[in-house]
Amino acid sequence: MDITGFGKVAELAKGIIDKIFPDKMSAAEKAEAQIKIQEMLQAHDSSLIAAQKEIMISEMGQGDSYTKRARPTIVYSGLLFIFLVHVIFPMISYATKEALPELALPGEFWWAWTGVCGVWIMGRSMEKNGATDKIVKMITGGAK
Question: For the chain, which end, N or C, has fewer CB atoms within 10 Å of the first or last residue's CB respectively?
Answer without folding.
Answer: N
